[in-house]
Amino acid sequence: MHKKIYNTILKKLERDIHLPTHCNTIHGNRRVFEILLQTTFLNQFVETTVKEIGYYSDGICSADTVFKRIKTHGWNKNTP
Q: Which one of 29, 73, 78, 79 has the fewest CB atoms closer than 10 angstroms to its CB?
C-alpha cells in the first residue's frame, strides 16, 4: 500500500511541480523528488535519507545538491 501511495505522490509532484534544471544537470527532478518524498515518509533529515539510499543505490545526489537546487531555482507550479 505504501508503495502505491508513494508512486502516486511522486507522479503528481513530477507533473505539477517544475524544478528548473540546466543542460549539465546530472540528477533529474525525479531523483530530487524521490529523496524529498522518502524524507517526508520516514520523518527524518534529508542528509539521513541520502545516506541510507546510498547504501543500496548508486548515483544518488547529495543532500547539498537537493538543497542547492531548491534554493537556487525555487518551486514553480506548472500551469496547464
A: 79
